[in-house]
Amino acid sequence: MDETGRMLQHGGSGVGLMGGNQGQGAQNTTGYGSMGPVDGTATQGPDQAVEARKQDISEILQQIMNITDQSLDEAQARKHTLNCHRMKPALFSVLCEIKEKTVLSLRNTQEEEPPDPQLMRLDNMLIAEGVAGPEKGGGAGAAASAAAAAAAGPPGQPDNAIEHSDYRAKLAQIRQIYHQELEKYEQACNEFTTHVMNLLREQSRTRPITPKEIERMVQIIHKKFSSIQMQLKQSTCEAVMILRSRFLDARRKRRNFSKQASEILNEYFYSHLSNPYPSEEAKEELARKCGITVSQVSNWFGNKRIRYKKNIGKAQEEANLYAAKKAAAAFAGASPYSMGGASQGTPTPMMSPAPPGGPQDMAGYGMGINGSDYGSQPYNDGSMGYDPMHQ
């Protein structure tokens, strides 16, 4: 059988692995590492010996460059020839010595890097929004909380349940796309990592590769892939934020009452200015007429009383306007906003001017009708929270 591979050059001897003939290989079986001539180079001059070595190195490099052009069968045959060559242990030993001298094994052997803070922030945000979680498919509880926070609104509105389900459906769609893409990412990363590890293990049969170096290469691969993971999580967080902003903005736009509802509420407030605290029955009637909830009616009256007390001058002009409207309606024979009560059937008088002491003296100033004292009414009815959206 022909010897494949010229004898590797070592200490002046012509020892090769990639080419040559059987006779030359037989001459070198006992000459590896010896200082004496084993290939007939003693009969050559120094210049001729150097030139021969250069030609051998050039031939080896050319064979290495041609490896990419070889077929799979040719590459497997060449690899098998190399593994079976009698000088392969010597080649491996030489490579180990070279590696120890050049300290290649210590290159980039840094300690494990801490986790990326930006990636941790994105993970926490996805968990909070219900997109990611400990179980497959995201955190159902977090998703329900996020949906309730985004689509929350006053109870009793028919479109509230529709918006809530619509938000949850869109959030579930985002969560599904995220997990599908994340699964593809993990699959591609694992496949590529496995391929590189197998390749390094195969190469370790010819050149020295330690397990730590393989582990380090796996870390480098994961770090390269982490940029893809970060981009995926960043785009998912942006999609969730856009979804939340759309639903929250739509809910805020609907918080302002209609013009007709504001007219009804203002009419009742200034008609009962001496005691602007509607009963539960009156609140239910106002809620039915305005198409809102009883809680919204209570909040509106609480905010209205606070604004009235803070800006008494402007409120007086508004009260005069509504009083004129009611007087005109009573003169016509019917009030479209009649709610019954102490003022039913009796025109409400115009507001009296404020006392000389200013608004701060309104606490003791009787506004009233039927002996009631507006200033003596305490602002402690549970609906006093000021909401600037309810105007």
TrEMBL record:
Matches recorded under Gene3D superfamilies: Homeodomain-like (1.10.10.60)
A single BP term in Gene Ontology: animal organ morphogenesis
Positions of the Homeobox domain: 248-311
Domain PBC, chain residue ranges per copy: 52-249
Major localization class: nucleus
DNA-binding region: 250-312
Ranges annotated as biased composition (Gly residues): 11-23
Annotated keywords: DNA-binding, Homeobox, Nucleus, Transcription, Transcription regulation
Recorded GO CC terms: nucleus
Subcellular location: Nucleus
A molecular function (GO) term: DNA-binding transcription factor activity, RNA polymerase II-specific
InterPro entries with a match to the protein in the record: HD (IPR001356), Homeobox_CS (IPR017970), Homeodomain-like_sf (IPR009057), KN_HD (IPR008422), PBX_PBC_dom (IPR005542), TALE_homeobox (IPR050224)
UniProt entry tagged with the keyword Transcription: yes
Region (Disordered): 1-34
Taxonomy, superkingdom: Eukaryota
Pfam families registered for this protein in UniProt: Homeobox_KN, PBC
Keyword Plastid: no
Family according to the record: Belongs to the TALE/PBX homeobox family.
Protein name listed in UniProt: Homeobox protein extradenticle
Source species: Bombus vosnesenskii
Lineage: Eukaryota, Metazoa, Ecdysozoa, Arthropoda, Hexapoda
